[in-house]
Amino acid sequence: METKKLFISADIEGSCGISHWEETNLTDAYFRTEMTKEVASACEGAKIAGFDTIIIKDAHDTARNLYPDKLPRYAFLLRNWTRDPWCMVSGLDETFDAAAFTGYHSPAFSSGSPLAHTMSTSLQFIKINGEYISEFVINAYACAYKGVPVAFVAGDEYLCEQAVKYIPSITTAPVNKGMGGASFSTHPEEAQNLIKERIAKALTGDYKKCLAALPACFEVEIQYKKQESAYQRQFFPGAKLVNPYTVGFISDDYYSVLVFLHFCM
Questions:
Q1: Which of 2, 13, 131, 174 could share a disulfide with 160, CB 3.0–4.6 Å?
Q2: Structure pTM?
Q3: Is residue 3 pLDDT above 90, yes or no?
Q4: Nearest to 149 by CA among 72, 231, 229, 92
């Protein structure tokens, strides 16, 4: 019987009910538990769909948030940061059949979540080809570079809406809705059930259609909250200072974009 492999990238700011930066820290056991339960639900749904090898990347902040003993015994976990340019999808390669993201959130310069940001709270925004982008887009493109479709994403409502624009066939599970500085959400057990049901459906369907379309060229802009941050990053090879707060970079190779992002955030 053919082995099916799933890669899960897990964040926390899109978890059910989360609404404040303090709740994203290692000291907050409740939301670390919720993050873990949502990942476990995704694993259970994948198992129902026939995926027998599941690799999880803890991809939030310290990358040491998930409780390993609360995950299914058939799952493998990559903790802490490898420090390579793949970042939130480190460990991914071409042997995976599909990828899924949990706990994902709206991008910087949006109102979709009280915790909206892209990669770092020191940034105003990241743009690719004129569009404000989320961590979902960065990582969906990274998966596409490896030839791996992103079949499923769970997170806040706006992020899920944006995901469909980039991957029309993706299955989403919105478990939060941003309302100014607050979040509006369902009961966490309902969120966990939704994730389990929808990822199972996604992975029993034609998930191969969920490969993000890589642009032919990437025109990247990173705007920082402090001008000295932009001044420093302009010296990355190939980068330029667009204005006192913004650094630009252009490449037709997405791996080069990942290297630029890795060193300039």
A1: 174
A2: 0.97
A3: no
A4: 92
DSSP output for 79-138: -S---STTGGGTT--TT-SEEEEEEE-PPTT-SS-TT--BSBTTEEEEEETTEE--HHHH
Q: Which domains does the chain have, with CATH numbers?
A: 5-120+134-210 (3.40.50.10780), 218-264 (no CATH)
Per-residue model confidence as pLDDT tens digits over 230-255: 999 999 999 999 999 999 999 999 99
Q: Who's near 192: CB < 8 A, 6+ residues apart?
A: 16, 37, 38, 40, 41
Q: Indicate whether 179 pLDDT > 80.
A: yes
For residue 172 the two structure tokens come to 């989403």
Averaged pLDDT score across all residues of the chain: 97
Read off the pLDDT band of 1 (50, 70, 90). low
User: What does 125-187 look like in DSSP terms, one character per residue?
Assistant: EEEETTEE--HHHHHHHHHHHTT--EEEEEEEHHHHHHHHHH-TT-EEEEEEEEETTEEEE--
- Give tens-digit pLDDT for 186-232: 999 999 999 999 999 999 999 999 999 999 999 999 999 999 999 99
Q: Which backbone phi and psi does 55 adopt, to 5 degrees?
A: -110, 130
Provide the residue count of the chain: 265
d(CA 23, CA 125): 22
Average confidence (pLDDT) over 122-131: 98
Q: What is the pLDDT of residue 2?
A: 73
Alpha carbon distance 185, 14 (integer Å)? 11
Q: Which two tokens stand for residue 119?
A: 């990669």
Sort 238 into a burial class: Cβ within 10 Å, 0-12 / 13-18 / 19+: exposed
Query: Which residue's structure tokens are 């500085």?
Result: 181
Evaluate whether 200 touches 154 at the Cβ level (below 8 Å): no
